[in-house]
Design goal:
CATH superfamily: Spore Coat Polysaccharide Biosynthesis Protein SpsA, Chain A
Strand order of the largest sheet: 5-4-1-6-8-7-9
Number of helices: 6
Number of domains: 1
Structural class: alpha/beta
Order of helices and strands: EEEHEHEHEHEEHHE
Largest sheet: 7 strands, mixed
Shape: globular
CATH topology: Spore Coat Polysaccharide Biosynthesis Protein SpsA, Chain A
């Protein structure tokens, strides 16, 4: 099964004070960590979607063997990044995409492996944390066009997932899945 990891890292990170692709904490930069999470979790390939701070982000990715895509309309929200990423994938050789966000630093390869357990061309699944839907999200290639057509603003695939049966894969024992949008004071 060929699953493409799709790491969304295009945001300006206005609440963080720096573009999301450039954020780092005591464990290092989030961008390479996200790539490693997808690869070590079982994704066959990894594509990183960039927008703000492209040149600096590409430097962080040097030597990691990933594809990069620039969402030129990244300021329109997560949906722009999702559309750019999905349309860049080779649907002939890839059966599913696992969409992950760069600002989920506590989500590790074990979460990715668990969600990938639902992989397949018709699959729709997402990680859940104590029953609350989160990321990563697994999109079988049969759903890519529908997601691209319905993704708007900062909603990403949410409208599509709400209107289709989506498996919730509980991962609360592995991570919090908290989207980090600002550093604590």
């Amino acid at each position: 099964m060929r699953v493409a990891g799709l790491l969304l890292a295009a945001g300006a990170g206005s609440r963080m004070g720096t573009p999301k692709a450039l954020v780092r904490d005591e464990d290092g930069p989030w961008l390479p960590r996200g790539v490693t999470t997808l690869r070590d979790g079982g994704c066959t390939t990894v594509t990183v979607v960039l927008g703000a701070a492209v040149a600096e982000a590409v430097e962080l990715l040097d030597g990691l063997g990933v594809d990069t895509v620039v969402a030129h309309d990244w300021a329109d929200g997560m949906s722009a990044s999702l559309r750019a990423g999905l349309t860049s994938l080779d649907a002939d050789s890839t059966e599913a995409a696992l969409v992950h966000l760069v600002d989920l630093p506590d989500v590790g390869p074990d979460v990715v492996r668990r969600v990938l357990g639902a992989a397949g061309p018709g699959a729709l699944a997402r990680a859940g944390y104590q029953g609350v839907p989160g990321h990563p999200v697994l999109l079988g290639r049969d759903h890519w066009q529908g997601v691209v057509e319905t993704a708007t603003g900062d909603q990403g695939a949410k409208p599509y997932l709400r209107s289709h049966e989506t498996a919730l894969v509980e991962c609360g024992d592995l991570a919090t899945g908290i989207d980090v949008d600002s550093f604590p004071d």
